[in-house]
Design goal:
This protein is α+β, with helices and mostly antiparallel strands. The protein has helices spanning 2-20, 23-30, 36-56, 114-118, 180-192, 200-229; strands at residues 71-72, 84-88, 91-99, 121-128, 134-143, 146-156. It is 42% helix and 20% strand. The chain has a 6-stranded antiparallel sheet with strand order 1-2-3-4-5-6.
């Protein structure tokens, strides 16, 4: 939904540009007291305002609470870090999430079916223990009816503050290279800690809200920059 709105907004702005890059346009305004730059800025600001109003009227998704015992990390909507956390014995478990389409190289979002785009999430699971410098990191694919592990690695706690940090040490073997018994054991490990498809409804709704906030902020920030250029 938000991706469509963004595409429509930027498309509308681009559609105005041919109108102001033609020779007649420049010939007219070069002889008038109105500068072409002022006209361009006015068109952009008007389009931004129209789409800001349109997006602000979008109905939010139904409110969904995270499955117990997970709780939302304070300030998660305004950061790219962990979203959910919980305690399991002496362990702290922190979850971060992003849309799979956002990090796959060379993939055009416009070519992805709408349901596929929103139903494929990347889940980062960090399991840490007190007095340990390293965390056990799982990169998982999260779907409405399944969770699949893509990789398991050890990361220094300082490396888990961002989603795409490059590990400083050996990242471990490919998960597919492990034998069936070990892969099943790792799946049981995260399942025991509540990492399952029950997380999907909340995380999907959370990403909708985050995308909406980001889009609204984008409209306002771009508008502010254009106004300063006047």
């Amino acid at each position: 939904m938000w991706r469509t709105a963004m595409a429509r907004a930027t498309g509308a702005i681009r559609s105005k540009l041919p109108e102001i890059t033609t020779t007649p346009f420049h010939r007219y305004y070069s002889s008038s007291t109105i500068s072409p730059s002022a006209v361009v800025n006015s068109m952009i600001l008007r389009s931004l305002k129209e789409h800001y109003t349109e997006v602000s009227k979008m109905a939010p998704p139904p409110k969904v609470s995270p499955p117990e015992p997970f709780t939302v990390v304070k300030g998660a909507l305004d950061s790219g870090g962990p979203v959910l956390t919980r305690v399991y014995g002496d362990e702290e478990i922190r979850l971060s999430v992003m849309r799979m389409i956002n990090i796959l190289p060379g993939v055009d979002p416009s070519e992805i079916d709408g349901d596929d785009e929103i139903n494929q999430l990347f889940l980062h699971v960090d399991v840490s223990k007190p007095n340990k410098d390293y965390v056990l990191h799982f990169l998982c694919g999260l779907y409405p009816d399944a969770v699949g592990i893509h990789s398991v690695s050890l990361r220094h706690k300082l490396e888990t503050s961002g989603l795409l940090e490059v590990p400083s040490k050996y990242n471990g073997p490919s998960f597919e290279a492990l034998d069936d018994r070990m892969r099943d054991a790792f799946h049981g490990y995260i399942e025991e800690r509540g990492i399952n498809d029950g997380l999907f409804p909340f995380l999907q709704a959370w990403l909708y809200v985050k995308d909406h906030r980001g889009l609204m902020h984008w409209f306002k920030s771009v508008g502010t920059c254009v106004k300063k250029a006047n």
